[in-house]
Amino acid sequence: MKHTAPSARRRRIASVVAAAAAVAIGLAGCAAPSTDDAGSGGDLTPVNYQLSWLKITQFGGFFAGEAEGFYEEEGIAPTFTAGGANILAWQQVTGGAALLGDEDNTLLLQAIESGEDLVALGAVFQKSPMAIMSLSEDPLLEPSDFEGKTLAFPDNGIEQYTAVLESQGVDMSTVTVVPAGADPTQLVTGQVDGYAGYATAQGAALELQGLDVEYLYFEDLGIPSYGNVIITTKTNLEENRDLIVKFLRATVKGYEWMNANPEDGAALVVNEVNPTGGLDLETETAAAGIQADLIAGENGVLRLDVDKFQTIIDSLVEAGTLSAPLDAADVVDTSVLDEVFGDKTALLR
Fold first, then answer.
1. Of which family is this protein a member (predicted)?
2. Pick the CATH number of 8-126+226-341 from 3.30.750.24, 3.30.450.40, 3.40.190.10, 2.120.10.10
3. How does pLDDT run across 261-286, given as a tens digit for each residue?
4. Which DSSP symbol is given to 32?
């Protein structure tokens, strides 16, 4: 099924409607819209979605969903609010500034452990793009390769990483861990032997420099993880279920389109969604190609598996990141995407 992008005029009209509705919501204290208002009188219902990071290609499915008219077909005018280093998406959701958002699984689970009314509905990445990147002349391909090496690693998740390597017999006293910079220069210049980051971001940048990069994904290292877990509150889901189903139906279509059209999707992000963001088209195109396999799933894009989520929880408890076990069945609600897909595994074919 071929969808063409809405005309510029239609996009401007939708933007005006969304902006006006967003102002109205702001005056009402940023409350989530009721499903009773969705599509009434032909108007579009505004939905604010909080991104966990900047407007880059990993979120291309959302932007494609808007450009291809999938949200409009569901009666929705979406707003995608960029995240950043000092923004926690879950706080924007629990505070009412956004109806949905996406969050790191660890941060989500820590928030739930602290008593926040959050639930996971899906995930952009079926397999997290987080990986240990190394150069082919001195690759890190299995746990034993880490001994005697220096690794750049972000602060978040270091306990879990350490626990997994120790459980596999690695003497961590021989491994030097330093903070990871925002780009993988440390690896290029030989300051470190491995760099922990996103294959779809830092990995793409390395490959475009002509370097032969090896990836050891955290999942393959024994650290189960999703990437960009889609969340809302249980209250939001109860009060706005129909609207959330419609939003995720459009999002599924957006990511299916993005995976089928990575070059066009990257161009959309660079040239239309974030033209002032300093994004490089070649890098974003490479990222779109890398991420497609990580987003695709046997049962459809965005899907979550309760058993896998329980494994994630258990591994975080073992690492000491969570103080007590949580029941994944209380954390994950698969019924929304079950309703979206029905008996299908794809919506655009």
1. Belongs to the NMT1/THI5 family.
2. 3.40.190.10
3. 999 999 999 999 999 999 999 999 99
4. P
Q: What is the pLDDT of residue 23?
A: 34
Helix, strand, coil abundance in the chain, percent, nearest 5 = 50, 15, 35
Residues in CB range of 157: below 8 A, 6 or more apart: 106, 130, 223, 321
Q: Please tell me the distance from the alpha carbon of residue 205 to that of residue 279, in angstroms, as a whole number.
A: 11
- Is residue 77 within 8 A of residue 47, CB to CB? The reply is yes
Give the integer Cα–Cα distance in Å for 57 and 260: 14
Residue-wise pLDDT for 54-86, tens only, equals 999 999 999 999 999 999 999 999 999 999 989
CATH topology of domain 130-221: D-Maltodextrin-Binding Protein; domain 2 (3.40.190)
Q: Which two tokens stand for residue 32?
A: 């989530």
Rounded to whole angstroms, the Cα distance separating 32 from 25 reads: 8
Instruction: Please state, in angstroms and rounded to a whole number, the distance separating the CA atoms of residues 186 and 298.
Output: 36
Can you count the helices (H) and strands (E) in the chain?
16, 10
